Amino acid sequence: MSTPLDASDLAALAALDALLQTSSVTGAARRLGLSTPAVSHALARLRERFGDPLLVRAGRGMVLTPRAEQLRPRVRDALSLATLVFEDPGAFEPASMERSFTLSMTDYVLRVFGGPFEARVRAAAPGVDLRVIVNAVDDAERLRAGDTDLVVGIYGALPPELRTRAIISERLVCVVREAHPVLAPTKRRLTLRQFVTLEHVQIAPRGQPGGYVDDRLAELGHARRVARAVPFFQLALEMTASSDYLLTVSERIARQLGPELGLRVLEPPSELGLEPYALSMVWHPRFDADAGHRWLREQLVESTQALDGLSHARPRRRLDASDPTAGEASGRRRRKAKN
């Protein structure tokens, strides 16, 4: 049965190796850059620890005991392994990285800048595997547990230790099908009355209906009917293209997919005062100094910078606590339901 190491054992490992390699207290002191008395004291402690003299006099020099001879290669190997822990890994080379990352993000991210991000990773790090899962209200817990390596989204209050960096800003627009029977082809902005009268498709990436738009309507004393709530941006756009529904959606994906789906983009009612928002990447601080993880984050940032990522002034960077898609809001509702 092995005995657990303590700090003194680890500190003595270098001294033991020097003594066993040189068979000399003076030689070991010279190798370690210590005084001879200090190494002599270290030898005394090692003798007590092993129950063996380790070095014995032989004429003018010293020789290793059988126990010390047995220890010599094992100590050398152990010290070499310990040295690797503190060794500078050298320049990071993405091309040599063989690793898997789990990313949590919406299909908006994959559609708008996932292509450039994928191309960058594939070209520079062919040994990297990427696994993408959908956003969830427990993204923060997944990061803490190590189930997810990086998430992209807009969140409510996050655990204070998590790192965040805004990477792209967006604004909300409305879309309807080109031949919508209620809205004239020349229409450029919806009135508030039209907005609340029409039936809506809502994108609920984390499975919770309601949110920012509904809160703004409630502040004005209005509500809308959400006829369909789906978790995916592209599906919501396709449903809108084949119906008379109205969809409020992020502008970039509306501009990308709208023409091919036969959709037209309209401005939301000015009374709503919808503010731009920012998507952030979030990670656990255990990866702050991880060269591979840091490189992956840089690829994500550079992919959004090519799109003039943070192009909106003062975008909101977090969800209100009342937003049902915010982690802390859903958590409170679950706790309340249990009481």
Automatic annotation (TrEMBL):
Domain HTH lysR-type: 9-65
Key words of the record: DNA-binding, Transcription, Transcription regulation
SUPFAM superfamilies referenced in this protein's UniProt entry, alphabetically: Periplasmic binding protein-like II, Winged helix' DNA-binding domain
Entry-linked CDD domains: PBP2_Nitroaromatics_like (cd08417)
GO MF assignments: DNA binding; DNA-binding transcription factor activity
InterPro entries, sorted: LysR-type_TF, LysR_HTH_N, LysR_subst-bd, WH-like_DNA-bd_sf, WH_DNA-bd_sf, YidZ_PBP2
Ranges for region Disordered: 307-339
Family of this protein: Belongs to the LysR transcriptional regulatory family.
Annotated protein name in UniProt: Transcriptional regulator, LysR family protein
